[in-house]
Design goal:
This protein has one domain. It has 4 helices and no strands. By secondary structure, it is mainly alpha-helical.
Length: about 130
Amino acid sequence: MAIVSGFMPRPALAQIKIASNDYGHIIPCGFDKDLDKKISNEEQCHFDDVVKLFSNVMNELIKFSTILFVFSMIYVGFQMMVNQGNVNGLTELKKRLLGFIKGYAAILLAWVVVYTISNALLKTGFTFIKN
């Protein structure tokens, strides 16, 4: 019963937000947040918002790639069980498995780079020009 319930959809999974910030958008600027039908200076896009946009997009891609990675691991694991007697099939599946792991590691490394750079650029008082 526990195995079957592990594959059942969870209510929490049905409530995953596609949005990344408080206002329900991946794009952090350029819309009327206070609903006064005007886009004020604080609601317009600035450099910090562009950096935040890249960070939000990367976070959403990480979520999607993690789900894709898990399902690909399940698929390769199932194929390995089916092809236990086939040496050529297992060799191909091991290459595919290693490719999935390398690809996911590259995605995580890209996320770490974007996250680190965005945190450095979004610090209060950060500027490219030193006075």
